[in-house]
Amino acid sequence: MKFTKLTTVLVLGALFLTGCRKSATTGASNKIRVGYIGLTCEAPIFCAVENGFFKEEGLDVEMVKCEWANYKDVLALGGFDITHHLVMYFLKPIEQGLDVRFTAGIHKGCLRVQSSTKGNIHSVQDLRGKRIGVPGMGTPPFIFANRVLGASGIDASKDVSWRVFPAGELGLALDKGEVDAVADSEPIGSLLLADGKVRNVADQAQDMPYKNEYCCAVIVNGKYLAAHPKESAAGTRALLKGAKWVEANPAAAARLSVEKKYLASSPELNTVAISHLRYVPSVSGADQAVQSAAEEMKIAGMLSPTTNVADLAKRAFVHLDGVSDEWLESLKVEKVAGGQVPPDQDIRLYAELILADTEDSCCKKRPVLAAEK
What's the pTM value of the predicted model, to 2 decimals? Predict the structure, then answer.
């Protein structure tokens, strides 16, 4: 019986690790494996590798390409050591025992809850009893809307009705009266505002306590962190420098990501997508984001009612030596010629390009696997 259980664990571990390429290698202590999926918003990873930021930190970097399906599990099982990803995507697994830690914030969120300008919804309280359109259950817009509702005393499982539509059809659903409000991410929110179809009910980029909240953060395998704290700090610094470089050079970062074949897109599409995310890395900002996201996810019923939020946040985030806001403030990155985006870029062109894209973004709905249905 013991042998059978051990065999099962080993087989499951092997299956998880096969979800990534070039996984589970060992070597010198300066070796670090960086996981990625191939998303537009992973530009800091690609730029940190290609610009030599890991090398500057004394690290020998190896890229590990993964799939959405088992991304969290592969990180926890040691298939790779470090990456950056959605805070809200990892909090529930961490609550359930996933051995990973956040170390710093990469970029701020881009989520909104919006209502039709033709309706009478002006506040979150007005959403009670209404129909809300989302790009998918469990997506970041859905989680954000749940948090907003829960913070206002509205039970998201009973007091509203959820309707799922493709992201590009949320505005049409409003026009046809199929929903009263929508929860969306960029570029949908900006496009609907530009067309005068909606008003903001909750805006992650403008409203407190979400205004300064980080969507994506650096996250490290717990066992790797315990065994290699200096390398974990160095890897975090490399990614944060990558984020600063992307903020200063969004067009150059977009071209690099495509030309180096980290993702299948066009430089033009990737440029407009990256340029509307704020890559302003922060350590304290990510620490606060973990706390605030956990608090509201619990209120919304997305975490266990018995979870101690302070304990969860303390377990989920770690401060590393040499990784601080002071260090970030002193960090300078170059602005490369042709690396910026024209200030008059048309939001409608931006939206049209994004909606025509078939590639993943961290804020888009991920594919639902047969095993999850």
Answer: 0.77
Query: Which letter does DSSP use for residue 317 in this model?
Result: B
Whether residues 95 and 228 fall in one domain: yes
Domain shared by 83 and 131, yes or no: no
**Whether 216 contacts 87, CB under 8 Å:** yes
The Cα–Cα gap between 74 and 235 comes to 18
φ/ψ of 72, rounded to 5, equals: -60, -45
Give the whole-angstrom CA distance, residue 41 versus residue 263: 11
CATH of the domain at 250: 3.40.190.10
Which tokens sit at 73? 């599990």
DSSP string over 159-205: SSEEEE--GGGHHHHHHTTS-SEEEEETTHHHHHHHTT-EEEEEETT
Q: Which domain holds residue 195?
A: 111-211
Residues 228 and 326 in one domain: yes
Total number of domains constituting the chain = 2
Using only the alpha carbons of the chain, give its radius of gyration: 20
> Hey, what amino acid is at 326?
E
Tens-place pLDDT, residues 294-350: 998 898 888 999 999 999 999 999 999 999 999 999 999 999 998 887 766 655 555
